């Protein structure tokens, strides 16, 4: 049987000396071809603009930008072997040996684990941060512009092929490199273009984590045209994905493509720090920010002592013959000294030192009785002097956090049921803020970022834009550090040797979790401290006009579990303010309410009472 003649092979497509083999990807701005270069008999990837430059000036502008970017030398930037022009078409050539495109890789390896995806993103961001700091922007980050080899090494290719990038459409002359800084308008344009690159990275991260292109559109540039400020669609990770996405990583990815521009990442290293923090904490117990925090505990201590430490120590020493309650009252004024005593005793217990008593030690009077005044003096001498390594601005922020935490501690004392020690309740409430305190002292810049992300943008009457809420504290911490604030406190409590029972008490009741009636004294302490902290957050974190409603919400949440009424909360707040300002002794405990589960709370009555509480709080702040 005579075989039928086969169809003649299509002649290879030519681009100058290059033989085009395969279109690897395209976007609205550029395209990438796999080609054979006969000059070296090897494969290259050619990146070309989708539209031919209109004239020689445009061609010169394109090639000048490409040659400027080609001078960058970084392990996560693909080296350019040639920048050329063929038939008035400019191109960039990159050796194929650097890997396949991320689009090719994901097609062959679908549903990559989140840790792998984040590892690729971190490498990409290292190269991008280096380029941005050199004054270069990419302009068209796509899956086909990211290369990955068999060892998982990632590099970014195709810089400047999409120029003019967003921020340069007005014809601003683009001088490669830091010379942009001499022109404020050009610098602002460069920052806008860098933010555009980061938004594209966020869209790619969404694609890689979900296995599907955002908005069903593989071109990141077209996706970005459909979200703010150009469109109204939202790009957020779905709750159902091929592989689970941890909450910290979800918060980081969603911040990348937030519907509010002010919440997005604008600097590559900021996003890199967040992803690196999550990756290290996920892969290594005590890694990332948690490992860094433990290292800083050894170098600069947990907190600095407040000004006047020497005078306080002398006062404590002079009281050696007095009752331990009086000494404890003096010590309690300094949070750093209180923590140091707690750490000293509980760490000694963990290490097997023979100390009287087997349970957790949560009262300063007992600690002082066990270690003596000489032990207090020794602990005070180990503290860093105020403000430690902090700048004046950061020290003021830490002092404000101290005051807020102390107010919560005093409020917990005022809200405690009968039979509970005021010092124990105070310390539990304060320790529930341990993560916040560590954030303010050891990650001062990041603490400011978290605070900014939590702010609400008020409604704009001129434009009609509605009020835009900020992120929750948990989501903001995830987005900045890659870990939550609760974890910062937990790792320190564990390092101090606090037992599991204490660590459970100092975990605040989550904002969305139901509040159940306490089953034990430990539950009662935890709930009382959580209620106090929630009340202080309501007073300090919302506009004055909403304080009453916020307090009513907190009261209703804890009413059945703790037997609280709004009037009791209001009176307790006033008493806590007095304790904070005057150093007054804690008030008497509340009467027990055995019928708390049957109480019916009238929301309108609560709002009326809390309106007066809000007025008292405003007056207290003024003074």
Describe the protein in words.
This protein has helices spanning 56-70, 102-108, 114-133, 184-210, 220-224, 247-256, 268-283, 288-300, 309-318, 324-332, 335-350, 364-381, 392-415, 422-431, 434-442, 444-454, 473-481, 485-495, 500-505, 521-541, 547-562, 566-582, 603-622; strands at 13-15, 18-26, 30-37, 42-49, 80-86, 89-95, 100-101, 146-148, 154-156. The protein is of the alpha+beta class and 623 residues long. Among the domains are: 13-97, 2-Layer Sandwich (Phosphorylase Kinase, domain 1); 98-292, Transferase(Phosphotransferase), domain 1 (Orthogonal Bundle). The strands form two sheets. The chain has a six-stranded antiparallel β-sheet with strand order 1-2-3-4-6-5, covered by helices on one side. It has a three-stranded antiparallel β-sheet with strand order 7-8-9.
